[in-house]
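Record format v2
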Amino acid sequence: MTNESWGHIREELISSVGKNNYTNWIEPLEFSDLEDGVAKFYVPTQFMGNWVSRNFGDKILNQLQKAGQDVARIEFSVPSTRRVRVEDAPKKTQAAAQPSRNDADLPGAPLDARFTFDTFVVGKPNELAHAAARRVAEGGTVTFNPLFLYGGVGLGKTHLMHAIAWELQKRSPGLRVVYLSAEQFMYRFVQALREKDMIAFKQLFRAVDVLMVDDVQFIAGKDATQEEFFHTFNALVDQNKQIIVSSDRAPNEIPGIEDRIVSRLQSGLVVDLHPTNYELRLGILQQKVEQYSNQFRDLEIQDGVLEFLAHRISTNVRVLEGALMRLFAFGALVGREITLELTQDCLADVLRASDRKITVEEIQRKVSDHYNIRLSDLIGPKRVRTFARPRQIAMFLSKQLTSRSLPEIGRRFGGRDHTTVMHGVRRIEELRAQDSQIAEDLELLRRSLEA
Ligand code: ADP
Ligand code: MG
C-alpha cells in the first residue's frame, strides 16, 4: 500500500465516521508502512493515536481489509522528529481538527470529542454550572452574558465549555463557535502585533457568534492582551453575541486583572464548580467504566474497587480518571480480575500522594486565622460565640476533610467528648443551608486547605 492508495481507502470512511470525525481524526493520519500484516500510521500526538485507535481502529482495519490489503493490525506512533519538537504537535492537530465548519479562518482550538454533555456526570458540586451550561448550549436569546465558570483544576470547566460548543454546533451547524484558551488568544494577539495585522485580528474575533475563552486568569498582568480582550469582549456583547469564560477562581479574586474587566466578567452569570464529593466521584468512575467497557471487554472489576477509589482519590477528576485508566491497562496486561489488592498495588503512588492529607492542626490554624482569633481560644474552653462558632466550623471541616473519627477530633480540640464534636458538625450543617455567609466561609476555607 502507498500513501496515495491510503488516501483513496480512507475516503471510504467518511460515510461511516461522519465528515467531522473524518476531518478531525482520520485525515491527519499519515501512512508509514505495511509489513507482516501490520499497517503503521504516524499521528501528531500520542493522545490522538490512542483516541483514533480506541474509536476508529476497527473501522480503519475493516476498510483496509475490504480494499484487499493484507492487514491484521494497525499501529499508531508519533514520528520521533516530531516528538522532539513538542510545540509543533498541538498546532498540527489544531489545524486539522477545527470542528465542523469548513471556515478555515476561525481562530479556535480543537474540541475534544469526549467532552460532551453525554459524558458529563452531574452531581451536587457541579449542578448549577451544568444547568447554566445547558441553558447557554440551547442557543437562542442570550440571557446571561458572559457565562463565567470557575473552579479548581480538573473539575470539568474545559469539559463543560467543549460540551457547550458541540451542542451549539449540533443545533446550528452554521454558527461560528470559537473556543480557545486565554493563552492562545494572547498568542494570536501578539502574532498579529508582530505581523502588523491588527485589523485582521479584530475582524476575526468580532465575526464570531459565540466566543469561549478558557483559563482567562492567564491574561492577568498582561496589559496589552487584557486591553484587547476587553475590546473584543465589548464588541461582541454589543452585538449580543454569547461569551463564555472560565477561570480557576472568581473574577474579583484574579490578581492583576483590571477592575473594569472584573466588572465586565461579573456582569453576566458567575457560577462555580465545587470540589467533587464522594457521590460524584463514584458516578464519574461508573460512567468511565461504562464508556471504556468496549475497549476492555473482558475486564472484571471486583465489587468495592470503584468505591475505594472514590473514597481515596479526592484530588480532582483528572487524577481519578488517570488512575482508572492505569488500572484498566494493568488489569488487561495481567489478564485477571481487578481486585482491591491489585488496585492498591497498581496505584500505590497515586494513593500515597492523595494521602498527603489535610490535618486537623492545619484546619485549626486556617480557621483561627480566618476569624482572627487565637489558636488557644479556638481549642480552649471558652464558650462565647466568637470562639464557639469558629470552633464548630473547624470541627466540621475536620470531619469532612480528614479521615479522623469523632473521638479523635474531640481529643484534638482540647479533649472534648465525641458527642460535642457531633453536635458541632450538625450545627454547621444546618447553618450552612441557612446562612450564606457561613456557606461562603466554609467554601473559602475548604478551597484554601485543599489548594
Ligand atoms: P478543568 O478544565 O476544570 O481543569 P477538565 O474539564 O479538563 O477540568 O476535566 C478534567 C477531566 O475530568 C476531563 O477528562 C473531564 O472529562 C473529567 N471530568 C471532570 N468533571 C467531570 C464530570 N462531572 N463528569 C465526567 N467527567 C468529568
Ligand atoms: Mg481546563
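The first strand starts at residue 30 and ends at 35.
Residues 46-66 form the longest helix (21 residues).
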